[in-house]
């Protein structure tokens, strides 16, 4: 009887040991997994999923965490790669991560203070300048005299006026003009000015290039905003910053960062169109959003758009673009669009009516 009791005790001990430490007794039991949708609810983060790229994102305020199914790493704020992830994608589409990683992410989001993240730098790029006049148009003034209108002059005045409005509204931000006088800059110099700015963890920036249009069709008129096509890919990841990471992973990281810039560029472009329409929509045409891989847009490593203020080759619009009062309206439109974009991050208001 005693021998039977001893055997039962031994069996119970083995069962308990197996449950606690795994079959080999080495504490190798599978990790506890947490559904990221539940993690989003606990932390107050927003969960997004890109079906085509297979990217999951948790975002709260200034902070972002991104995952991809089938990898053993995750990305914090697009810059810090953590390789300790254990994940599983269930048949019903739920993405699970290990408990330890979930705990790290919870702490990461706790540190996200509302309002601490913002657009610190606003880069305004008036196109052309100096020996490059840009598009040249002609119009008849009130005295029926033929006048020339240079794109470089129109965009510089608009950019300077916009910068003054933004500086008055945001004394805590830095408004950068790629040129503030009639000087010539190479295209790479313009984006180089923006790309050289060093951002802190909680800082971001936007790039707005300002131009005026021209066409062989003298009836063409109106403003438009351009941004990169979603399928275009810039080289945003510096391999030197990820020396310890498999080179096969870098394109995925680049896609994650590029997707974010693309989304923000589209949002910025839409807000600029709405605000410009509110200022001059009764005087000209809103030609809507456009997609093209312009040099200054594709080489700016940040959310970036290119605005075409109007057509200097249309007589009626050239008359408007030669008017200081009209350029002030355009400047207010750009200002309001930028303010609206910043408001998404900082929850402030500062429109000019």
What tags apply to this protein structure?
353 residues; 38% helix; Aminopeptidase; alpha/beta; six-stranded mixed β-sheet
Number of helices: 9
CATH architecture of the largest domain: 3-Layer(aba) Sandwich
**Order of helices and strands, N to C?**
HEHEEEEEEEHEEEHEHEEHEHEHH
CATH class call of the largest domain:
Alpha Beta
Find the CATH topology of the largest domain: Aminopeptidase
Look at the structure and name the CATH superfamily of the largest domain.
Zn-dependent exopeptidases
- Helical proportion? 25-40%
Strand order of the largest sheet: 12-9-13-16-14-15
> Distance between termini?
94 Å
Overall radius of gyration: 27 Å
Sheet with the most strands?
6 strands, mixed
C-alpha geometry: elongated
Tell me the number of strands: 16
In percent terms, what proportion of residues is strand?
A: 15-25%
Number of domains: 2
Low-confidence stretches: 13-26, 294-299
Helix/strand-derived class? alpha/beta
Mean pLDDT score, rounded?
80
